Amino acid sequence: MATMNRRTVLRGMLGGSAITVALPLLDCFLDSNGEALADGAPLPKCFASWFQGLGYAPTFWEPKTIGTGYDFGVQLKALTPMRDKINIFSGLKVFLDAHPAGAHSAGPQGVLQGGVTAPQLPSLDQIIADSIGTRTRYRSLEVSCDGSQESTSRRSATALNASQPSPVALYKDLFGPDFKDPNAANFMPDPIVMARKSVLSAVTDKRQDLLKQVGTSDRARLDEYFSSLRAMENKLQIQLEKPAPMEACTIPKGTEFEVQPGMLIDEAREANRLFAGLLAHAMSCGQTNVASVNFGGSSSNLRQAGSQQTFHMYTHEEMVDPVLGYQKQVAWFSNQVAESLLEFARAFESIREGKGTLLDRSIIMYSTDSGYARSHSVENLPLMTIGSGGGALKTGLHVAAKGDGVTRVGLTVMQALGVPIGSWGIESNTTTKTITEVMA
Questions:
Q1: What tens digit of pLDDT does each residue of 354-413 get?
Q2: Is residue 20 helix, strand or coil?
Q3: Over the stretch 124-171, which tens digit does the pLDDT of each residue have?
C-alpha cells in the first residue's frame, strides 16, 4: 500500500461494483502530539444538532447551582455521567415580536433559525456546514428516529433537508456498495442482500495489509473500528431477517397497524443508537463534519408499546401529580429522551483519536421546542452543548441567562466551530453576544 494519509481508504469489489471503506483517524495520520494532522493542519471540528420536542417541566430540569459542580434537575439526572462535558443553559427565551406563537414551531425557529417566522433563513447546522462541511463527501447528514422524514435542517424557505429514517439506508450510503442496475428502469436495491454481503469481507486482503503497516496502537484502534463496523452490520442484518416461526405467536388485533413504523419509544431509541454509531463513524472517517438528528419531532407522537396515548397527548391531558409537582408519565418520556441523548454522546466519546476522542473535537447541541409543552411556552427553553469543539468551549458549566435570547447559544456554537459570523438572528432575536462564560 502507498504512503497513507488522512484520505486513505480501503478499496475492493463487491457484486461487480467498486467499493471503498474509509478509515478512522489513526496515530500515523496525526502529529507527534496526537493533536493535529501529520501535515500540521488542525483536526476538523464536527457538529451535531440533536432535537426533541416537548421540552421538560420548569424547575425540574434546571440545576440550582450556577457555574461548575452543578447537579442536574430530577428530569435530567440521566445525563449525570457526562456532566463535566455538558454545558447547560437556563432562562433563555424566543422573542415573538408580536408574531403568533406557532405551537411547536416558534421554539425551533428561534433556536435553530434565529427568529420566529424565519423559514426563509438557513438553519444553524447549514450555516455551520457552509464553513466546515465543504471538503467532505457529505456536506451534512440528516436523520430521524421516529420513522418520519421530519427535519429541523433547511437551506432556505423552499429547501428543507428531509431526514433519512432508515439506519439500513444510511449504512448503505456510508459503507455499502453503491450498486445501480443499468438494465432496470426502476430499481430499488434489496437491503437484505446488501446486509448479507459484508463490505468488510470485500476488502479483507487490503485490511490485512494495512494492519501489517501500522504501529501497535493503530492496529488496536483498527481492530476496534472494524469490530464495531462488523457488529453494526450484524445488528442491521438481524433487523432485516425474517424471525424463526413461533407456534405461540398470533396476529395482533386492534389499531396497532395504524401507527407509523418507528413511533414506539423503544424503536426510536434503537434507531438513535444505530444512527449514533453510524454518524460517529462517518465523522471519524471524514465523510461528514455536520449532522442533524430529529429524535421524536416537535409534536412528538412517540408512545409506549400497548398504549395509544402519545408523549404529546400526555403533555396536554395528564394531570400534574400533587406530590411530585409534575406530570408523571410525561416525565417518564422525558427521561427516555435524556437517556437517548446520553447514548448519542457516548457513541462520539467511544471513538478514540490520538490522545482524545471524537467528542473532544465536536459540539453536540441539544434543543427543543418548548419551555413547557403543556402551554407551548417558549420561555426558559432547555438548551445544552456537549463537547468542547476542539477546546473552543469550556465544559461542565451551568449558565443562567434569564430573559436573554436563545440565539446567544447558536452564535456561541458557530463561533466556537470557526464560523466567521459576528451577529445572528432576526428582529429582537438578533444578537452579537456570545455566552462568554463558556468560551475558552
A1: 788 999 999 999 999 999 989 889 999 999 999 999 999 999 999 999 999 999 999 999
A2: strand
A3: 999 999 999 988 878 899 999 998 999 999 987 678 899 999 888 887
46 within 8 A of 283, measured Cβ to Cβ: yes
Q: Are 106 and 297 in contact (CB under 8 A)?
A: no
C-alpha dist (Å) from residue 226 to 192, 198, 221? 21, 12, 9
Contact (Cβ atoms closer than 8 angstroms) between residue 138 and residue 132: no
Q: Show me where the domains of the chain are located.
A: 45-167+264-438
C-alpha cell of residue 261: 413504523
Reference 24, options 287, 233, 275, 201; nearest CA is 287
Range 45-167+264-438 classified under CATH 3.40.720: yes
Q: How many other CB atoms are there within 10 angstroms of residue 294's CB atom?
A: 26
The dihedrals phi and psi of 161, each to the nearest 5 degrees, come to: -85, 95
**For 123, what's the count of Cα atoms within 13 Å in the CB-facing half-sphere?**
25
DSSP letter string over 370-419? -SBGGGTB-SS--EEEES-TTTTB--S-EEE-TT-BTHHHHHHHHHHTT-
